[in-house]
Amino acid sequence: MSTKESPTVNDLSIQELVRKARNAQTKYESFRQEQVDAIVRDIGKFVFDNAEKLARMAVDETNMGSVEDKILKNKGKARVIWNNLKDKKSRGVIGEDAEASLMLVAKPMGVVAAVTPVTNPIVTPMCNGMFALKTGNAVIFAPHPKAQKCAEHLVLEFMKIVKSHGGPDGLVQVVNEGSVEKTQELMQSVDVVVATGGDAMVKSAYSSGKPSYGVGAGNVPVIMDRDIDLKDAVEKIVAGASFDHGIICSHEQFIFAPAENYDETVQLFINTGKVWFTDDEKQIQKLREVVFQDGHLNKDAVGVSASEIGKMAGIDVPESARLILLPADGSGTEDVLAKEKLCPVIAIVSYAIFDDAVAMAKANLLVEGAGHSAVLHSNNDNHIQKAGLELPISRLVINQASSLSAGGSLTNGFAPTTTLGCGSWGGNSISENLDYKHLMNVSRIGKIIPDKTVPTDEEIWA
Questions:
Q1: Which of 150, 249, 343, 422 is catalytic?
Q2: Annotated catalytic, 422?
């Protein structure tokens, strides 16, 4: 069946999509926890089992990213998100607080609009779809126009899964032939919005009049402390910064290395065999002008390989290079390389004392990326706490590859997701990773606390 013939992706008006979603959600709301979980599990397993096909589809349609890395991303995100969701209660009574004499009851929000980006056309709809369905909602995807085919394919497959478990028509849908106007109408017509995309789209979501979860820009600074295994840290930075051609918002962007270890650190990057480095100022300037045009990120550089970035600058960067490393003139406003680069280009400067590294990392974040993430490679608990206290970030990633772990992993405590909230710094409503719990209402049933001693006024004001 062609996508045009399918009832899940035909060119319905926004109001028709929402009406179908509301009818479906009314039926789905009665599904028990085990029924909901079976659907959510199978959606994650579909992406896991078809990781290669979906990765190739994404690269073919968007011309962004690496097929090999997207295969790993599809498998990794499907695995970690389901592992986190599978034992969580999200329907009916989900818990009790005996001390407060409260019973907690989960209720769906209704219809979720999930605005999905061109940079992650598979795992973001998978993730937000799993969260929405886990909590008893219907979901309508509004994809980036350059990722329409991916979204339509996922919706067809997700609805096959829904139907195989007795779910209703219209539970998962997609906006066809999308536009800014259609997306805005959708956001104004649903019950809650998850907006993963550019700054303008996120601001539009927050002005829709509906509860919304958006994300801010990433621009992850990386501080290398003095008490670490430099080689291990370098390998993790390369893995994170080069992954999927640098397209992930949580990938490493700018390195601060101790001055006395600067030359050794640069050599360790080169020794990986995956990093191309130059300290030729003319070449650095050419690359600046390719990545940034008039101070703004060049969209044609987003998600392309290091060798392709080199070609755009007229520089021979070998195909074997996964990452371009450039010395910067300084932090913050001192060099445009201190801004977010959604491509495999990373900058490096040296620092004298740890306080200087923190100050420079903060300067970068205040130019772009405040509220998102930072990385610290350190074994010094005082330095870890200092960075956590002073940097305007929602997550500080310690001794890990940021792009592979800030969105949750099997070995850390960040909630597995593809939507990373940036708090008020980034103009967002949450300063944590979006999770299924953000897409459900919770009713609290309160009884009198047995044997509760009521304090006197004297005791209260003592």
A1: 249
A2: no
Check pLDDT > 70 for residue 1: no
pLDDT of residue 4: 39
Q: pLDDT by residue (tens digit) across 45-77?
A: 999 999 999 999 999 999 999 999 999 999 999
Three-state helix/strand/coil letters over the chain? CCCCCCCCCCCCCHHHHHHHHHHHHHHHCCCCHHHHHHHHHHHHHHHHHCHHHHHHHHHHHHCCCCHHHHHHHHHHHHHHHHHHHCCCCCCEEEEEECCCCEEEEEEECCEEEEEECCCCCCHHHHHHHHHHHHCCCEEEEEECHHHHHHHHHHHHHHHHHHHHCCCCCCCEEECCCCCHHHHHHHHHHCCEEEECCCHHHHHHHHCCCCCEEECCCCCEEEEECCCCCHHHHHHHHHHHHHHHHHCCCCCEEEEEEEHHHHHHHHHHHHHCCCEEECCCHHHHHHHHHHHEECCEECHHHCCCCHHHHHHHCCCCCCCCCCEEEEECCCCHHHCHHHCCCCCCEEEEEEECCHHHHHHHHHHHHHHCCCEEEEEEECCCHHHHHHHHHHCCEEEEEECCCHHHCCCCCCCCCCCCCCCECCCHHHCCCCCCECCHHHHEEEEEEECCCCCCCCCCHHHHCC
**pTM metric for this prediction:** 0.94
pLDDT at 6: 41
Average pLDDT over residues 6-13: 58
